[in-house]
Every structure is written in structure tokens, then in C-alpha cells.
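Morning!

This is the sequence you dropped in the shared folder:
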Amino acid sequence: MKQFASQLEANQTVQSTFLVLQKEIRQKKTGEPYLSLTLGDKSGEVDAKMWDHVAEVMDTFDRHDFVKVRGLAAVYQNRMQLTVHKLQRADDREVDKADFFPVSARDRGEMFAELRQHVDRMTDPHLKALIEAFFRDPVLVEKFQTAPAAKTIHHAWIGGLLEHVLSLATLAEFTARHYPGVNADLLLTGVILHDIGKIEELTYDRGFGYSDEGQLVGHILIGLRMIEAKVREVPGFPPRLKWLVEHLVASHHGELAFGSPKTPATLEAMLLHHLDNLDSKVETVRQVVGRDPLVEGNWTAYVPSLERTLLKQDRYLQTAPPRTTGAAKPEPARPSTDFASKLAGALLPKG
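The structure's back. C-alpha cells below.
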């Protein structure tokens, strides 16, 4: 039976298969090599160290390989860590990949149908035709329904991009009704296309990473090229409307420092940026709190993308100290060392 990374417990013997997310060959003080690994599956990841017999296995596998491991789980510096005693590269045919790649909890076909309902409500013929030009491409649609929205930060699972876009479409529909003057069709077009370049920027066949094109130019420029190509398929598409669509994509990160070639200069662009930021931050908080590697405590480890630690609110509420009412005071804990026991004998009440 598969033992999942998030379910490992201290002093548990582990014999399972994991995906190698990170691999480093380091040196002990003696000069001998040891392995520092990050192993993962769909539930999360765990740090792992292999101290002995490393030379025999260190060149037999690489990052993004599946490996069978046998070892012992333990808590080290408030994190679960796996000490690997034996390791062997696993054949892909022995692996159920559904155990390793996180997938949206929602059905992707159902989500895409729901997104199509938003498109059906559009009234601008040119913008609606542009979206339809994208959705007529079966290869593109398959990638759009499969791609994650990010490598690690938010919606980092199969179907994550579609789930993120659908969430934004719902938010966009509400805000367009709430704020006068918003061009609802233009905003929805930006929602659907703002991350379309991620279907080529990200790779997601063996773990989540970046394609060569993604590393070189990024999803914003890739998306702008895709829009340019699809606009040509829509007869009479107004040039100024094309520039507005492209501005939405170019500015959706909000700041030059965050990778946007331009900052938002229209109402729809400003809304798109803030809705995108809101949805990604909310999902990041949910994922970080749900998968925090720290074993004890009410706070998560430091989250670089948010520049803070986060409160594990459910644990905090469950572990709140009881309020005293002035009745009986709790009995003081009795120390266990010899010296403390003698001191307690003199100072603490007997019994």
C-alpha cells in the first residue's frame, strides 16, 4: 500500500515509492558522499537523507525519477524527515501516476462547461469570437484543461489553470455588476486569456517545471503571441480593441518588479490584476496551512512568496489554554531531574 508523504509519522518504518523533486549529492565531514533529497507525491513532500551506501546508488537515478525507498521517518528541527536506508529507481510501469500528481478536486470537463456558460453570456461579438477561436482548437483546449496555474505557488495541480480561471470568471462577473462602468466582456476576456501562455510555459508530465520557452520568454509574452495569432482568425477585429486585450495580459502582474511589461492603465486591467492577486493569495494560504511541514506549533514555516508566516487557525483554536475562573488551580508539573525532585519535595505540596 502506498504511504503518502503527508501521512508519515515519527518512528514509522517507511517502504514506499516517491517522486524525486530535488536531488543533491553532498559531502560528510569525512569526505564521503551523502544524498539530500526532496521526495514527493500528490499529498505533499518530505525531506530525506541517505547517509550510507550512497556511492552505490547516487548515479542510478535523477530528479523527476520515481524511486522505491525503505527507511525511517523521524522529526528533525520540527519537520518530518526520512532517513533512507535503501533506494532503488522504479520503473514507470510499476507506478500509478495518480498517486504522484495532484489533480483538481473538481471534474475538468464540468469546469470547462461552466466556463463556456460565462462565454455564452458575452455580448461583444468580436471578443466572444476571439475566445471561441481559442476554444475551437482541440489541442489548446486539452492543454488548457490540464495545465497547472503555477509550478508551486497556487493552483499547482493538474487542472489548476482552468480552476483558477473559472474562479476569476465568477469574481469578474460579480465585480462587473458591482462597479459601474466596467466592460464585463473585456474583463472576462482578460480573465480567460491572462495566463493562456502557461500552457506552453509550464511542463507537467513528470513533476511541474518550466519549458525552455517558458524560461526564455515567460507566459506573458507567449500569451501575447497566441492572442496575435488568434485575432487574425476573427474577421474585422478592431485594432484598438486588440490593444486593450493585450494590455490586460501585459499588465496583469500589476508591477514592473513582478514581471509585467506594463502597469494597469484601464479599469478592467486594474480589476484583473487585483482579482488575480486575490485568488492566487487565497489559494496559497489554503495550501500552505494545509501542507505546512512543521510538526508542532500554531504557525507555519516562513512563506517566501507571502513574506510571512501564517497562523494555523484551526489548531490555534483547538489548543487555546482553558480560561481560569478562580476555582481550583491546576497542579504544577513536577520536574523529573534528581535535583528538581529534591527541590520539589521541599517546595511543592505532597500528594
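Headline: Residues 267-291 form the longest helix (25 residues).

More detail when I'm at my desk.
O.
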